[in-house]
Prior knowledge:
Strand content: 25-35%
Oligomer: single chain
Number of domains: 3
Amino acid sequence: MGVFSNLGPKQKIFLVLISLIVVLFLLENLLPFQIISPLQKILLPVQASIYKTRKDVGGLFQTVFEVGSLRSKNQNLEQEVAFLQSENARLEKLEGENKILKDQLGVKSPKNKSILASVVGEDPIFSSSRLLLDKGSRDGVTNSSIVFVKDILIGQIFSVGSHSSTVRLLSDPETKIPVVTKSGVQGLAQGEFGNQLVLTKVAQNKKITEGEFIFTSGESGLPRGMVVGRLGKVDYDPAQLFQKGQITLLLEPSLLEIMFISVEDR
């Protein structure tokens, strides 16, 4: 009794409930049905309440786990869709190239070596448009290195340390990339504050269509044909010198944990 008196109210209630369940179990297995039936009527609601509580708690943890699992699966599916869209867009663009280029598709041209890098942090000032990667100059990374996932351009390295580097994402205000639409219209992909990427410098007499893919044009040291994104809403104002449109990224960089960096062969 001394030990029981030292317990708190909740502990006492829990101990009593456990004791009742044990008693019910013993009575059910040791006494005839005629005797235990009245006891069951008294104790069964208590036992049912405890069981329901245990099930509810277990269900809560199961639900939390399933929600987390669904989110992870959804993110993986979104990435797979982005990869398929970029690959399809790239192949469609290649079909529109001239015969000489098509003849060269079967010939492997030398490409820069690439290494796998993990995202380890964000820039403390430009946290949403610059990411810190765990590869640096000792791994062959330079200020001109391209960061990508498959055929999708993620950004470009602009600061390199011996063991790490920082990638400037496409949505960074300092990003300016010469691009070309699937239909062949040239323009400039430019980052804006608020994590926006827009297509600018498109002449008014050129037709650009919402939904078409946008690729790097091969200028400014970037490889030709990398997928930048898809054209969103187009702002057509005859009073302006150029057309302007929103660019939707195929992959959200903040959700990526690994990327590839182009490096120079040593």
